[in-house]
Amino acid sequence: MKIPMIAPSVLASDFANIQKEVEMLNQSEADWIHVDVMDGRFVPNISFGIPVTEAIRRHAHKPLDVHLMIEEPERYVEDFFEAGAAVITVHYEACRHLHRNIQQIKALDCKAGVALNPHTPVALLEDIIGDLDLVLIMSVNPGFGGQTFIPNTLKKIEQMREIIVDANATALIEVDGGVNLENARDLIEAGADVLVAGSFVFKSENPMETIWSLKSV
Asked: Which residues are responsible for catalysis (predicted)?
């Protein structure tokens, strides 16, 4: 079985000690650092924005995987790229002109992703899959950490993998929400490439060991 990429979400970290948390991730087996940006409009929560992303970048030795859970993401894409994003993911549900949004991100020489909420069918990405570097499948309703994994996500991952293979595309499949050691193997077998874990990592007794365990399933 393939080795997954792990992208711990700093949304669940100790913000009062963000430098220490990021330095821990630098030393861990994590591949990316997942940055969840929420605006209180697209999702019913507010997290952090450009200044905090810049602060994380100053200490990070690994790529920032920035997930924009915001309305009108096109207004902020360039700012987040300049703040240090290596991957920028926008939500299908927030983009009226998705192809244009993706081209905007790629024009910055940045990897471009599209996120799908639990109710959004993966088939809606068939016409654009060849332009994407990443598809983020939400396995909980976006907005808050620590939620319970939605089982139907496995079916969506399998469907997304089939679309990618049929199109001879190269997009990675990322899964975000309720990821833990109980479902990680099933996610990978279904076709996931990148596992996002927040509370499961940062609330554990030994986050570095937890990341290693996810990497080793």
From this structure: 36, 176
Q: Which CATH number fits the domain that encloses residue 105?
A: 3.20.20.70
Q: Are 179 and 199 in contact (CB under 8 A)?
A: no
Q: Which of 39, 133, 176, 193 is catalytic?
A: 176
What is the arrangement of strands in the sheet containing 134-138, beginning at the earlier edge strand? 5-8, 194-197, 172-176, 134-138, 111-116, 85-91, 64-69, 33-38
91 is in an annotated binding site: no
Catalytic residue among 36, 39, 133, 193, which? 36
- Does residue 166 have an active-site annotation? no
pLDDT digit string, tens, across residues 96-131: 999 999 999 999 999 999 999 999 999 999 999 999
**Residues 4-36 pLDDT 10s:** 999 999 999 999 999 999 999 999 999 999 999
Into how many domains does the chain fold?
Answer: 1
The reply, when asked if residue 200 is annotated as ligand binding, is: no
Distance between CA atoms of residues 132 and 103, nearest Å: 10
Q: Which structural domain range is residue 200 located in?
A: 5-215
Question: 36 catalytic, yes or no?
Answer: yes
Kindly list the distances between the CA atom of residue 193 and the CA atoms of 14, 133, 159, in Å, as whole numbers in the listed order: 27, 12, 14
Q: Is 191 annotated as a binding residue?
A: no
